[in-house]
Queue: 2 jobs
Job 1
Amino acid sequence: MSDSVIQVENLGKKYVLGQQQQGSSRYVALRDVLADGVKSFSRRLRHPLKPNVKHQHDEFWALKDVSFEVKQGEVVGIIGRNGAGKSTLLKILSRITEPTTGRVRLWGRVASLLEVGTGFHPELTGRENIFLNGAILGMSRVEINRRFDEIVEFAEVSRFLDTPVKRYSSGMYVRLAFAVAAHLEPEILVVDEVLAVGDAAFQKKCLGKMGDVAKQEGRTVLFVSHNMTAVESLCQTALMLSDGQVSFRGDARTAIAKYVSETNLVASAYVDLSTRSKERYGPRQYATLKSLSLLDGDGNCVTTLQMGQPVNFRLEIDFKMPSDSYEIGIAICNLHGVRLHYLVSNWEDDLNVTTSGPYTIEASVPSIHLFPGEYLINVWVKKQGESYDDAVHEATGFAVQESQITNRYAYFERYSTNTQVYTPSRWQAFQGDNLDKTVLAQTEL
């Protein structure tokens, strides 16, 4: 169509997964290639009739037969579970990765924000990286200067503008990267889950900017997120991917409802996190998450809790080096991907890992204040101030049932549809306008 800015036709991306022998090196040196060639030639001389056996390999299609169009000014959400092919699709649209099959047609410049630091040179300052990114987009120095002050103001990094970006925190990196991508006038803006690195105020600011870019400037936005509330508020339409294929394309609310209904709650009393390969990310340089389990107040592994019941989250972690700066985190999310509760180790106590090896870590919650429903858990371990070293998205799930707390309220059903966190509070009523008057009624916590 004439107003389409993105056309994707029968797109496919295949990866070949080699099966190396146990104990073999991760990297192949030139001497190994030459040695293998000599061995292969020698085998053919000694056994000329024996067929040459090739190394075994598996083919993995990250995308297969993907087709869709996006019109100018549309804000399209791309949703799906981890491993569905969302990031691969964005890398192809951003010309970072070439497709195996099919073709992509783009009209206009593309600015991408796929991961922390994308497009930045770590040795250059923030100021120099702004001009570098503008040049990559084909903008002149005059055009970049015209938007320079807006970029710096939006990113809130004026004090560090002449500091090499390798010294930036992940939050500063993302603020500057998004400001550059959104303000340098690209026709197509591609944003991945990277915005989750920023704080809540900055995320709200970015969502507002993406809405302005589409509505006021007529630019196209592709937005990937596990936060279904953000997708619903920003996007008119959504594309749902499942196992590398488009399973739904249409109204955003309908797509989100379909995604939530098809999200299987992975609930288990004990979860071996090594089985969560698709939902896992991080280099695992310092530590590896081994298992996760939920225990009730009596120490029993459970998948169902009652509202107000105590719970312990138990993690088994293999630390590769001692340190007193590890951060271990647990996020409780609803099925829309909205994070409702954070449990972070260094907010409460500093954990001192004195030796390398396996550790059992427990986070105790005296009372779970979630309304009845189903919930998912994200877990991570990292060094303080650094990116996630090992993180598992949707590691497991659990359910909350009604209890004596919810049974008190005649209107519980009315409130449970739009809220999910219960906060205990004490209510009192006083006669008159002074607090020293007679107490008429009060509730006990």
Job 2
Amino acid sequence: MFVLFTHQCRWFMPVNVGLTFLIGGILGWILVKLLKPNLKLEGLLIASCSAGNMGNLPIVIVPAICDEKGGPFGRSDVCHNSALSYASFSMALGGIFIWTHTYQTMKSKSLRYKALETAENVKIPNKDLDANAETLLLKRENNENTVLEVPTSDYIGDTENQSIEEQDQSSVSENRKESSWYITIEVLRHFVAELLSPPAIATFFGFLFGTVAWLRNLIVGEGAPFAVIQDTLVLLGNGTIPCITLLLGGNLTQGMKSSSVKPLTLISIIIARFLVLPVIGFLIVKAAANFGLLPLDPLFQYVLVMQYAMPPAMNISTMAQLFDVGNEECAVILLWTYVAAAIALTSWSTFLMSVLS
């Protein structure tokens, strides 16, 4: 399946998926600065703008277009195979970015919110806090008013003070070096941990067996010795999409509950997700096509632009439940964004088929 991406500029899809997360994250960051929501909503807002549903929706929508009679993308059988390959590749790439970039965003914001909540729960009463503050100010004033008299003729004492100061400066520089080295090690450790996550490992083996011919021939094809693995995966995959759709419906029903999400926040996410981001994506794809970076395949360009117009990923709800922060708010955001997606996806799909056909 993934052999289609080893030639004819199919390498642009990973770059395109990365751009959707980058530009969407910037839009989410701008909305956070403008709207100034609760800390509990900051991670949800950025994740909703950056992480799109590149899994089950493209697999359902893109091949279905090829089954329509008189479709703009050529023969039905050829279009269906290409569409399934494009959608599968999009799902694999989206899973990597979601469980690395989006996961870290949700995790960091959740930890900050829980730390702030814990600090507020154990806060000292105001009277005690004011009294402690006054005593600290008095001690600081007394220390500032006391003057230490050092004999100017005591040259030995001066040299000792200078040596102590030099030692302090050297220890500070060593601590800075150790802290920078510690930060580097921590970043590398987190990066390796994310690469060893189940979605990343599954994607790696999918790419490996899809691009290496002799490995692919072991499980794909009529005469493959391990064809039962392929049949099992197809059977599981055919049942996974309906199950994911049912889970999506179950998560959306929770969005009817009351939450702290303001209507302005929902409208801003919808505009950023379904208007601003797809317009930017359309311009990027058209510019890449004009510079010869894309193949002469309108279906491929259609999938690239639609990656910018997808509603927020369902895994955001899973992460909210995992970190136990903003479950109801996430359900509200998913509910209204998916309601708007019914109109937005239809409009963008109609527009792209008319432009790219």
